[in-house]
């Protein structure tokens, strides 16, 4: 083999190997949500891949940018994602807009409506399929053990909550009666107080805020997500020149 050709081949192999080492894939997808009441960071669950992938797709398309939180109920939830809200007039009824498809239900026992989770809104379809774009952030409230006992007896018609549910709803809080009926597909890593701020606004008879609260969303890039996960593990983010160079050969997203 020609010595020069051999050196070039080894160099390319080394470059590909190093690029492969730098081109790691984050464990989760993350979305930075900016609102008129502050910012929050959302982690999407891998256990609900259909909802995760659909939400990622819409965020990439800037679908949610400038939409309203059009339905707000204190101590319950704040809902948005209706495209009709982008240019909605005052007092206009909202809540029926969205893409012309639904997302199959991915309801799982371990994914519950604790405070700060995101759930998919839906109509009363028997398959519990989700709206493709409308979602809600859970606020809820903290329950006493006795209140959960009462909930089991009357609202849940005797169905028992799990130990994990009881732990979450007596400490973090949430909306336990929604469990098993709607798909929960992510949770806020920070900015839960933003939900509280939105939930405090005054609303009309349709639960629409009297003063518009808008949103925009940014999907974290592969590098942003990797560095977020490194920091969560107690490691320094990778921001050096070599990282930036090899990122040129890797996809922006994942």
TrEMBL record:
State the SUPFAM superfamilies in the record. Answer: Cyclophilin-like (SSF50891)
Recorded GO MF terms: isomerase activity
Q: What is its EC number?
A: 5.2.1.8
Alphabetic keyword roster: Isomerase, Rotamase, Signal
Superkingdom, natural source: Bacteria
EC class (word): isomerase
Would you indicate the residue range of the signal peptide?
Answer: 1-23
InterPro entries in the record: Cyclophilin-like_dom_sf, Cyclophilin-type_PPIase_CS, Cyclophilin-type_PPIase_dom, Cyclophilin_A-like
Q: Which CDD domains match?
A: cyclophilin (cd00317)
What are the PPIase cyclophilin-type domain coordinates in residue numbering? Answer: 27-216
A single Pfam family it belongs to is Pro_isomerase
* Family per record: Belongs to the cyclophilin-type PPIase family.
Q: What is this protein called?
A: peptidylprolyl isomerase
Recite the lineage of the species.
Answer: Bacteria, Pseudomonadati, Bacteroidota, Sphingobacteriia, Sphingobacteriales
């Amino acid at each position: 083999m020609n010595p020069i050709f051999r050196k070039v081949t080894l160099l390319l192999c080394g470059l590909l190997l190093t690029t492969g080492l730098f081109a790691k894939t984050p464990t989760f997808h993350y979305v930075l949500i900016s609102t008129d009441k502050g910012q929050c960071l959302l982690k999407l669950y891998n256990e609900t891949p259909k909802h995760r992938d659909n939400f990622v797709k819409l965020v990439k398309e800037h679908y949610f940018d400038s939409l309203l939180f059009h339905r707000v109920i204190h101590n319950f939830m704040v809902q948005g994602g209706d495209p009709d809200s982008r240019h909605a007039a005052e007092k206009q009824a909202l809540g029926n807009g969205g893409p012309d498809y639904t997302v199959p239900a991915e309801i799982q026992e371990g994914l519950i409506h604790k405070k700060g989770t995101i759930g998919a809104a839906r109509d009363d379809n028997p398959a519990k399929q989700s709206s493709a774009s409308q979602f809600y952030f859970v606020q809820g409230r903290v329950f006493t053990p006795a209140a959960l006992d009462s909930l089991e007896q009357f609202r849940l018609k005797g169905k028992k909550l799990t130990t994990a549910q009881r732990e979450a709803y007596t400490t973090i809080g949430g909306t336990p009666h929604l469990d098993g009926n709607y798909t929960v597909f992510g949770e806020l890593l920070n900015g839960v107080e933003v939900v509280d701020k939105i939930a405090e606004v005054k609303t009309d008879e349709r639960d629409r805020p009297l003063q518009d609260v808008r949103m925009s969303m940014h999907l974290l890039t592969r590098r942003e997500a990797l560095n977020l996960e490194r920091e969560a593990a107690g490691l320094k983010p990778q921001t050096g020149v070599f990282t930036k160079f090899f990122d040129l050969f890797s996809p922006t997203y994942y």
